[in-house]
Write a structure and sequence with these properties.
about 190 residues; mainly alpha; 3 domains; 10 helices; 2 strands; about 5% strand; flat
Length: about 190
Amino acid sequence: MIGKLVSLLPQSRIFLCGTLREEELDPEGQLQKIINDLSGKSYFDSIKLSRLSSAGLGELLTSKLNRAETPPNLVTYIHKGTSGNPFFALEVLKFLLEKGIIVLDGKKLKIDSEGLNSILIPDRLEKIWMENLERYDESIQNFLSVSALAGRGFDLEIIKFLSGYSENKIFEVLFLLLKDQVLIQSQKRKNE
C-alpha cells in the first residue's frame, strides 16, 4: 500500500511523513527498497533524529512534568531504558505514572525508589501500551477488543451487538476511555 502511495507523490500534492527505528528496518525489506528508490528525488527528504543525551532527556522530562528539575536518578533510569529515544521516554514516563512509581503531589515529585528499581521497562512501546490497558476491568478490555474489530471508527449498533452492552454502558466506557485519552474523538465531516 505504501508503495502505491509513494508512486503518486511526484504528480500530487500529498505530504507523506513517516517515522521508524533504524535498528528495526529490514535491509532487504520493502520499506528499505522504497527509501532507496526515493533517495535523491526532489520531493523526498530524510531527517535522522539523534537520540537525546541524558541532559537533553532531563530537560524534556522537566518540561513535561512542569517541574524546576527532574531528579537525576529518574533521568538516568529512563535514559538507560530508552537509549534517549524521546517518544519512547515519554511513554515510559506515562507508564511510571500509571504504575504509581512516580506521583505528582502538588509541587513535589515523589518517586518510589524501590518500585523504580524493581520494575523493568518493556523493550517495545506496544508492551507499554498493553500494560497500561491492563489497569482496566474486563468489561472495558472487552469493549476495546470489540472496538478494535471495527477499525478507526465504529457504529454504535455494531458495538452494541458485538459487546452485548447497553447504550448506557457503552457511553460510560467511552467517557472513561476518552477522559484517559485511550480513545480520541474525531470530528464528523460536514458531508457525513
